[in-house]
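Example (one chain per record):
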Amino acid sequence: MRIVLATTNAGKLKEFGELSKSEPWLALELAPPDFSPEETGKTFFENAKIKAAAAAILTGNVAVADDSGLVVEALNGRPGIQSARYCEGTDADRRAKLLKEMEKVPGGERQAAFFCAMVVANPDGTVAFNTIRCWEGQISFTEKGDNGFGYDPIFQTKRGMTAAEIATDEKNRISHRGQAWAQIVAFLKKFATTSCEPGEMSNTRL
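Predicted structure:
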């Protein structure tokens, strides 16, 4: 089954390919180079919906989009949907900014969660399925681990390790993105094993 990922980021294609390595029936591809929707949503779901619909209409194919971010309780939910744009610079710059803002927050008040919203869109842009999942933890005082990206080195899971210290296969199973993708795959699999055309997906909502 051919699915367009609502992104032009080759890293995302590799990441979702890893998540789908046990699903040979699923063929993932990037959106065309001119794909560049404006993410004007106020929630993770709204932005994922915008991207999925835009990619589906542009390609005439079923598309999947995700929108993810880190929500920190002590920062009133920031960085939230602005996680990838929290400040200019690199991932390391964004982690440094967050740690600086959290430096006076005590250990018992550093709760945080990663959220991931995913949307499947029909070729006409309508929503066929959506889900949102979270991964709870807290913000560490220092960076630890090198098996991750973004905020992973400062996101301490309930296992006591940061997301960047957990092996990739295990992280893919328990993370917000891994949980959401598992639900997307389960939904798509129903259509990969029938004669149903992608555009015949019924609109469903969780």
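Caption: The first strand starts at residue 2 and ends at 5.
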